[in-house]
Amino acid sequence: MYVFHVCDTCAPAIVNDDYSAFEFHQDPDADYERVTAFVESAGYLVDAGRVSKPGYWDCESCGQVCIGSAYALETLA
Ligand SMILES: [Zn+2]
């Protein structure tokens, strides 16, 4: 099992398989491509709740820099 930490935009999109949120980003194609590539390489992911992270961290899905709490997504394998 592996845990990925992703941002508030990516987590619901990945868990619900609903990427409509990315349509409102400034560069929707780039974000969407990154996130779908991440999901393809990571496989099936389940919501493992929120975790607090110290300082700045990079979303492991879209790559954006975040601060504060992250969503944890777990692989099943
Ligand atoms: Zn993200």
Output the number of helix runs.
Answer: 2
Return Rg in Å: 12 Å
Order of secondary-structure elements = EHHEE
In spatial order, strands of the major sheet run: 1-3-2
Bound ligands, named by name, code or SMILES: zinc ion
Structural class: alpha+beta
The largest β sheet comes out as: 3 strands, antiparallel
Total beta strand runs? 3
Whole-number total of structural domains: 1
Helix content: 25-40%
> Can you give the mean pLDDT?
90
User: Distance between the terminal alpha carbons, to the nearest Å?
Assistant: 5 Å
The unreliable regions are none
What is the general shape? Answer: globular
Can you put this structure into words, describing what you see?
The protein has 77 residues and is an alpha+beta fold. It has one domain (3-75). The chain has two helices and three strands; from the N terminus they run βααββ. The chain has helices at 10-16, 28-42; strands at residues 3-6, 45-58, 65-75. It has a three-stranded antiparallel β-sheet with strand order 1-3-2, covered by helices on one side. A hairpin with a 6-residue loop joins strand 2 (45-58) and strand 3 (65-75). The longest helix has 15 residues, at 28-42. Bound molecules: zinc ion (ZN). Zinc ion is lined by residues 6-7, 9-10, 59, 61-62, 64.
